[in-house]
Amino acid sequence: MSLLPFYHPDLLEAGCDEAGRGCLAGPVFAAAVVLPKDFGHPMLNDSKQLSENQRLALRSVIEQESVVWSVAWVDAPEIDRVNILKASFLAMHRALDGLRQRPEFILVDGNRFSQYAAVPHLCVVKGDGKYASIAAASILAKTARDEYMHRLHEECPQYDWRANKGYPTEAHRAAIRRHGISPYHRRSFQLLPHGEQLELF
Questions:
Q1: In this predicted structure, what is the pLDDT of residue 139?
Q2: Closest Cα partner for 36 from 48, 44, 28?
Q3: Which of 101, 137, 147, 183 makes a 20 to 30 Å CA pair with 71?
Q4: Which of the four CATH numbers 3.30.750.24, 2.170.130.30, 3.30.420.10, 3.40.50.800 does domain 13-147 have?
Q5: What are the φ/ψ torsions at residue 139 (nearest 5 degrees)?
C-alpha cells in the first residue's frame, strides 16, 4: 500500500513520531517533519520496515527536501520523573517547538497525544505505515536515536547498546545482572523479569 501524501491538502501539515519508547535505557526521541506537497520517494515507509542502510539513505533525503524538520528527546531521568507516555508527548512537543514554521495541522503516530498549543491534530494508529510525513518522522527519530545510542555505547560498552540500542534483549538484561545499571537506564522500568532483584547504585 502506498503512503498517503497528506491529510489536509491545503494546510502546513507536520507528521510526528517517536522512537525508543519501549527501551530500558537511553532517551526517547521524537521528530516532526513537514514534507513538500509533491514529495515522493519509492522507498519511504515505516522505519521498522526498512534496513539500517535504507533508513540512513532516506534520512539524508528527508533532511534535504523537507520544508522543515526537527528532532528532540527526553532523557532517562526525566522519563522516570514524568512517565514514558508523558515523556513521549513531551519529546514530540519539543520537536514541534524546533520547527522554524509552526504547522497548521499535526498528524501523530499512535492513539493518544497531548494538545500542542492551539494546533489541531489527528492520531493515526500505525500512522507511520499510512502517511508519508509520519513515516519520515519515524525515520528521523529512529536514526537520530540509534546514533545517540552508538555514542553511549562508547561510554558503557558492557551493555552492547550499539547492537541492542537499549531495548530489552536477553543480552542486555544479562549485562544488567552482571554490571548493575548505568546513569542512562530508566529506573522506573522493569529492568529485569518479575522476581529478580536489581541492586540500584
A1: 97
A2: 44
A3: 183
A4: 3.30.420.10
A5: -70, -45
